[in-house]
UniProtKB/TrEMBL annotation:
GO terms for biological process: glutathione metabolic process; L-phenylalanine catabolic process. Keywords: Transferase. Residues 1-78 form the GST N-terminal domain. One of its GO terms (molecular function) is glutathione transferase activity. It comes from the Bacteria. InterPro entries: Glutathione_S-Trfase (IPR040079), Glutathione_S-Trfase_N (IPR004045), Thioredoxin-like_sf (IPR036249). It comes from Oscillatoriales cyanobacterium SpSt-402. This is Glutathione S-transferase family protein. Pfam families: GST_N_3.
Length: 112
């Protein structure tokens, strides 16, 4: 079964939950406690950020890498276009959203 290591409030983890739900994939959410809980992530993936997805022996870190992995492994309901130009545009917009909207959303959450 797919396992999603996450913080519930992480917009990056939310992105992956939405993709998993859209694709109709069963998964188990594992809430990572900041601090000590992140040590397990470092051991698994080499990083302390969420989300991290495990799929049998595969360990995938970073929401964009997870999205690409899910489309490759479970292609029935793709979220990223196959056409090279559309794929590039999609990934460019996704990167922009992560780096602008995502960072500002996190600042708002932390500030409240």
């Amino acid at each position: 079964m797919l396992e999603l290591y996450q913080f519930e409030m992480s917009h990056y983890a939310e992105k992956i939950r939405l993709i998993l739900d859209y694709k109709g994939l069963e998964y188990r959410k594992i809430e990572v406690t900041p601090g000590l809980g992140q040590l397990e992530l470092v051991r698994m993936s080499g990083q302390r950020q969420v989300p991290v997805l495990t799929d049998d022996n595969e360990i995938i870190a970073d929401s964009t890498a997870i999205a690409e992995y899910l489309d490759k492994k479970y292609p029935e309901k793709p979220i990223i276009p196959n056409d090279p130009k559309l794929r590039g545009l999609c990934l460019l917009i996704e990167q922009w959203a992560d780096e602008s909207i995502g960072l500002n959303a996190r600042k708002c959450l932390v500030a409240t």
